[in-house]
Amino acid sequence: MEFKLEITAKNMEVTDRIREYIEKKAPKIGRLLSDVEQVRFDLANKKSARSAADRQVAQITVSGKGYTLRTEERAEEIFTAIDVALEKMQRQAERLKGKRVKGRGDGTSAAEVAPEPVEAEDMSEAEPIIVRRKRFHLAPMDEMEAIEQMLLLGHENFFVFYNAQTSAINVLYRRRDGTYGLIEPEIG
To answer: How do the pLDDT tens digits run along the chain, 188 residues long?
Structure first.
């Protein structure tokens, strides 16, 4: 394998059988995308799931130079969840590969296309509580690449990225009417 493979589990044990199964299946991702740096399998047993068919969860995250792909599937058995997640990942990888070959559109800035963002309303009087923190690597990209990454990751509301054209952190978000907005913060 040319990439780093990580397997983590929550509320379950990663048996030798599961590890061997993943190690056998993971190289398919490397054959699809030649610049894969890391593949991470996050497995979980969700005891609180409403349906028994949703208890086993397999999430796959593939990181490479300038992109991150993620899929998540639920099934009654962990091997089924892994297989379906891998099939979904294969489709995403093929889509990414196709977009790289075809090009990036007409180069129009998302900020020029989208209407001005609406200011946020006042928050309620209750103190907000941060329940989760997440860290991730930001690869420089332009606005059209950010839209593609947002769609590939399945992020429906927003996407944070480092804009290579402006050398600043931007937030791309989807508006109710289906268009996109871009938040370009200024320090001052």
So the answer is: 478 899 999 989 999 999 999 999 888 888 888 788 899 999 998 877 677 777 889 999 998 887 889 999 988 899 999 999 999 998 888 888 776 655 545 555 555 555 555 555 555 566 888 888 888 788 899 999 888 888 888 777 888 999 999 989 999 998 888 889 999 988 87
Spacing of C-alpha 136 from chain mean position: 11
Q: What is the CATH number of the domain that holds 32?
A: 3.30.160.100
Domain ends where: 102, 126, 153? 102
Q: Quick one: CA torsion of 85, 10, 63, 101, rounded to 10 degrees?
A: 10
| Residue numbers of the domain that contains 143 | 110-183
Chain centre distance of CA 111: 22
Cross-sheet strand order for the sheet of 67-75: 4-10, 36-45, 56-64, 67-75
